[in-house]
Amino acid sequence: MQTLTCSVEVPRKLLATASSTWERVRSLHPPGPNGSFLLRIEKPAAWRLKMNRGATSIGMSMSANGCLYELSEIDESVSGGWMGSCMPSALVVIFLRHWIAQSNSSSTALGPQYRQPSLFD
């Protein structure tokens, strides 16, 4: 099983749960042009937008080797967010908890969607 990693502090148990969830839903997430993946959730009600006031969803970019490297607030045409060690740890935790819950509540994840190119595309 691939173990997810992150450059900000995230509880090990949460990363382990996210890793096992990823293993289960991986086939539902096609890689982008650079081999990375975009995990995406609808914006949680409690999420306070900071980088993109019009965002309707939140995305986490993940490299092919399982490193979570970008957290973005996304709308139809624009995304804004944080990279690497600049990602707020608390927001990464909130994202992962909602992504795990979303992935566990349905056998199908959001699936392929428009993907805003990231810094490494």
3D structure, described in words:
This protein is an alpha+beta fold. The protein has one domain. It is built from two helices and five strands. Strands 1, 2, 3, 4 and 5 form a five-stranded mixed sheet that branches. Strand 4 (67-74) and strand 5 (79-83) form a beta hairpin. Helix 1 packs parallel to helix 2.
Overview features:
121 residues; alpha+beta; 5-stranded mixed sheet
Structural class: alpha+beta
Total DSSP helices: 2
- Give the quaternary arrangement of the chains: single chain
**For the residues shown, what is the average pLDDT?**
87
Radius of gyration: 13 Å
Whole-number count of domains:
1
Give the SSE string. Answer: EHEEEEH
Residue share in helices?
Answer: 25-40%
Distance between the termini: 26 Å
Low-confidence stretches: 107-117
> What is the molecular shape?
globular
Tally of strands: 5
Describe the main β-sheet briefly.
Answer: 5 strands, mixed
Into which percentage range does the β-strand content fall? 15-25%
